[in-house]
Design a protein that fits this description.
The complex is a heterodimer of chains A (343) and B (408). Chain A is 69% helix and 7% strand. Chain A is built from 15 helices and 4 strands. Chain A has a two-stranded antiparallel sheet. A two-stranded antiparallel ribbon of chain A has the order 3-4. In chain A, helix 2 packs across helix 11, helix 8 packs across helix 9 and helix 8 packs antiparallel against helix 11. The two termini of chain A are 43 Å apart. By secondary structure, chain B is mainly alpha-helical. Chain B folds into 2 domains: 248 residues, no CATH class; 77 residues, no CATH class. Chain B is built from 17 helices and 6 strands. In chain B, the strands form 3 sheets. Chain B has a two-stranded antiparallel sheet. A two-stranded antiparallel ribbon of chain B has the order 2-3. In chain B, a hairpin with a 2-residue loop joins strand 4 and strand 5. The longest helix of chain B has 25 residues. The chains are: A mainly alpha (343), B mainly alpha (408). Chains A and B meet through helix 6, helix 12 and helix 15 of A and helix 7, helix 11 and helix 15 of B.
């Protein structure tokens, strides 16, 4: 029982990332009808926002520390970050420590701006072109974005730590009456799960309870009628593209401490996120979230040794296998709506 | 000739002549000059890649160009072909013909299975299904089937499948007379054998492996022309323009699309087999989905749905990849030395990101430009330019005729 619980918990953090990316993909697909192959790149850019902010905060200058001397008796030069000199050592160190959560604020305007530029500058011109062209142009954009990041930050992963308080692990087992260390789970992954639940809830609430969200949902259902009512649906869809980009970016920001950001992390997640979207059902937001968590947990179960001994290699292919079975048996996916991409 | 009309025969002959004289055409600069180091592409390894990737993209074009089904998993067949060929070298002997045949058969079988499942859906679903299958093959090749400790080690994982001295090799012996690994050959002609011809300060290399690949490429090109011009090809085009209408007329399109998928899978397997025949080493990275993406890029660059496009695209991609990765900052400084210093540094600073290790970026940008402005690829670009010249001379009546849109 404790092993099963542990696998479910392990699946949650990856599942959260899948769910967030798939949610953004579905938002774009449901509103604009575009399959965005560059969505993984947005996730990666989010992670690099965290890297950038922590680099900015760590910007430092050298000062001569009179109290310390090196072995020749000369005063020692120490590096002092600007933040520490402005806010005092304790507040400054705390700010640097919290670089990743702070990057959330830092990344939102950046991601929304990138989303707007992408939609208005590039994708807008592809609505009337075939789906294959949309896939290809966003695929090209993904390569370009990835290579730009590689040119700026280099090819190696850049470790970006979580704040000090979240670095340990939490012993779930004790809480549920198992012996100690049976189920331990890093704090940051709990934070990640809570954060993604918050974002998902926020997006759904936004769509469900605001007038803007209502218009967007109406536009998703029947774009032409909404336009006939005199509403500028294009502008709202552009804003939704920005929101989707921000969701992917936030997923990336918070993922930075779990996996050191590197330039191809977006591509790695992208393929799986597509599978998630297809399993959930093209254009279905709850489907994307459900499938994201489901596949994340399934993947973590498949990587248990007991399972691997029976089916060697199952952990590597389980997601694809499930996707193939789902597409063939339930072509609309788990929660797909009728009439969406049914060709 | 050979059942082709005049225009296609001319095209085939031009390609044949280009392939035959490639060692000359690709070596325009004298040996040892700085231009030669940068722009000469007439060495065997690269020429082999030109024609092999040409075969691969010709096959991809039969699927994507004719039926419009965008497969994002074609690299899987390339990888499967490579592995089968290396296994043939390990088990049977070093002759390339059985290896190539086996790789075609095996990848054909895989294409049949994958195609049968994937083709039940179309559009974006088809792309994602092929992507999923290819990633499955890649992951399996990398993990379970590639684990040297496990009992089903077919691919040797990260190291890649390679020959060893204690392979059985029933025909031809496991070890060559010098006690080293035997080399791949075509009935005794070693693939790595080259004849060098020196004319003045030019040096031309004629490689046996290259000519074998080029010959096979010509055959595949011929077959692809025949497919394009056949009733079968017409049927595939009809699937592309409106599959629903085809179904409404009571015609089952599935066998046609499946046949196209299998044919293009066999082409990819052939290319994989040739890659292994030139260098008997097969790695899983050939099956990664970015490799599939590169196939798509090559096809788009050249021009989808055209006959010559795939060859142009594959050659262009390989050639510029080769050149761009050779250029570095000092070369750029040398070229731009006529400029004022500040400007020179600024331009080099910008170009720095596009050359050397950054060649991916230039190809990505180029790919996007082609998709946005030239959906028909370089071939369409060429056609537009030639039309521009022709228009000056004649009226543009012919132009209007070629732009007729199909009735809805």
């Amino acid at each position: 029982m404790d092993a099963i619980l542990l696998q479910i918990l392990n699946g949650l953090d990856k599942g959260s990332a899948y769910a967030l990316i798939a949610l953004g993909l579905t938002l774009i697909f449901g509103t604009l009808g575009v399959v965005n192959f560059a969505h993984g790149a947005l996730f990666m850019i989010g992670a690099f926002c965290a890297v950038t902010l922590s680099k900015i905060l760590n910007a430092s200058y050298e000062v001569i520390d009179e109290t310390k001397t090196d072995f020749l008796g000369n005063p020692l030069k120490v590096k002092l970050t600007y933040i520490e000199s402005w806010f005092g050592p304790e507040t400054g160190a705390a700010i640097i420590d919290w670089a990743v959560p702070l990057a959330i604020l830092f990344s939102i305007p950046i991601m929304i701006a990138i989303g707007f530029i992408m939609e208005r500058g590039l994708i807008k011109h592809f609505y009337k072109r075939p789906h294959a062209d949309q896939i290809l142009v966003t695929f090209g954009l993904a390569i370009v974005l990835q290579e730009v990041i590689k040119a700026i930050y280099g090819a190696n992963p850049i470790p970006t730590g979580a704040p000090e308080v979240f670095r340990g692990s939490f012993d779930f087992g004790v809480l549920l009456g198992y012996e100690a260390n049976a189920i331990i789970y890093p704090y940051w992954r709990m934070v990640y799960f809570a954060f993604s639940a918050l974002i998902i809830g926020g997006v759904f609430a936004f769509l469900q309870f605001t007038t803007f969200g209502m218009v967007v949902r109406a536009g998703m259902a029947d774009r032409e009628t909404v336009e006939l009512l005199g509403i500028n649906i294009d502008r709202r869809f552009t804003i939704m593209f920005g929101v989707a980009a921000a969701v992917a970016g936030l997923a990336g920001v918070m993922y930075a401490p779990i996996n050191s950001p590197n330039y191809h992390m977006g591509m790695d997640f992208l393929v799986l996120s597509f599978v998630v979207v297809v399993v959930g059902g093209m254009g279905s937001l709850p489907g994307a979230v459900l499938a994201g968590f489901l596949l994340g947990i399934l993947e973590s179960f498949a990587s248990m040794n007991e399972v691997k001994n029976i089916f060697p290699g199952i952990d590597q292919i389980i997601i694809y296998l499930v996707a193939i079975i789902i597409i063939l048996t339930r072509p609309r996916g788990l929660m797909g709506r009728k009439g969406v991409m049914e060709d | 000739m050979l059942g082709l009309n005049k225009k296609d025969t001319t095209l085939l002959i031009i390609v044949a002549i280009m392939a035959l004289f490639a060692p000359f055409i690709l070596n325009p600069f004298p040996e040892g000059s700085s231009m030669a180091q940068m722009f000469n592409a007439g060495y065997p390894d690269l020429m082999q890649r030109f024609v092999i990737f040409g075969i691969l993209v010709i096959g991809f074009n039969i699927l994507f160009g004719l039926t419009g089904y965008l497969s994002f998993g074609h690299a899987a067949f390339l990888g499967i072909g490579s592995y089968s060929a290396v296994w043939m070298f390990k088990l049977i002997g070093m002759n390339v013909i059985p290896a190539i045949l086996l790789s075609m058969v095996v990848s054909g079988v895989f294409a049949l299975l994958i195609g049968y499942v994937s083709l039940r859906r179309s559009g974006i679903y088809f792309s994602i299904l092929t992507l999923a299958f290819a990633q499955m093959c890649y992951n399996l090749a990398y993990s379970v089937l590639g684990n040297p400790a496990s009992s089903y080690n077919l691919t040797n994982g990260e190291t890649g499948l390679q020959l060893s001295l204690n392979d059985p090799r029933i025909l031809g012996g496991a070890v060559s007379s010098e006690g080293s690994l035997p080399v791949t050959n075509f009935f005794g002609i070693a693939m790595r054998d080259s004849v060098q011809l020196e004319i003045g300060s030019w040096l031309f290399t004629f490689n046996a492996g290259y000519y074998l690949c080029a010959f096979i490429m010509l055959i595949s090109f011929y077959v692809s022309i025949r497919i394009f011009r056949s009733p079968f090809g017409l049927m595939l085009r009809a699937v592309k323009s409106n599959q629903q209408r085809m179904n409404y007329t009571g015609l089952n399109t599935k066998p046609y699309t499946l046949a196209a998928f299998v044919i293009s899978g066999i082409y990819a397997g052939l290319a994989g087999g040739l890659l292994s025949s030139m260098d008997p080493l097969a790695g899983a990275e050939r099956m990664h989905w970015t490799a599939s993406g590169e196939i798509v890029i090559m096809a788009i660059l050249g021009g989808v749905g055209t006959l010559i496009g795939p060859i142009v695209g594959a050659g262009f991609n390989e050639y510029f990849k080769n050149i761009l990765s050779k250029i570095n900052d000092s070369v750029l400084h040398q070229w731009l030395s006529f400029m004022p210093d500040g400007l020179e540094d600024a331009i080099v600073g910008v170009l720095h990101f596009f050359v050397g290790k950054g060649w991916h970026l230039s190809l990505g940008v180029l790919f996007m430009v082609v998709i946005i402005f030239l959906p028909g690829g370089l071939v369409e670009g060429g056609q537009r330019i030639s039309r521009l010249f022709r228009r000056k001379k004649t009226d543009d009546d012919a132009d209007k005729a070629s732009h007729s849109t199909p009735a809805e």
